[in-house]
Structures are given as C-alpha cells and as structure tokens.
Design goal:
By secondary structure, the protein is mainly beta. The chain has one domain. It is built from no helices and 5 strands. Strand 3 and strand 4 form a beta hairpin. The radius of gyration is 9 Å and the shape is globular. It starts with a strand and ends with a strand. The structure holds zinc ion.
Length: about 45
C-alpha cells in the first residue's frame, strides 16, 4: 500500500497496487478527479 498525494488539490489517498511495477501507472484522484502519475507522487509506503 502506498500513500499518494494529488499534485493538484494536495489531498492524500491510499493506493493499493496489484503489481509492484508502478512505472507509467496512473491514479485518479478521489477528491478532484485528476489523473496523475503514481511514481512521481508517492508520499510514503504504508
Ligand atoms: Zn486531487
């Protein structure tokens, strides 16, 4: 499980990846709906 931070709204959310390969993976922000790259917005591993 990873903790991600949205670059647009700054909200943090958990991300449970099905694969350890996160390159080019994108996540949709649950708060503002923006898609962002997972690898560039990891806060920490939880
Ligand atoms: Zn957001």
């Amino acid at each position: 499980m990873l903790l991600l931070k949205c670059p647009k709204c700054g909200q943090k959310m958990k991300y449970n990846s099905a694969t350890p390969i996160l390159t080019k993976k994108r996540k949709r922000c649950v708060y503002c709906g923006r898609f962002f790259k997972v690898t560039e917005n990891i806060v920490k591993k939880v």
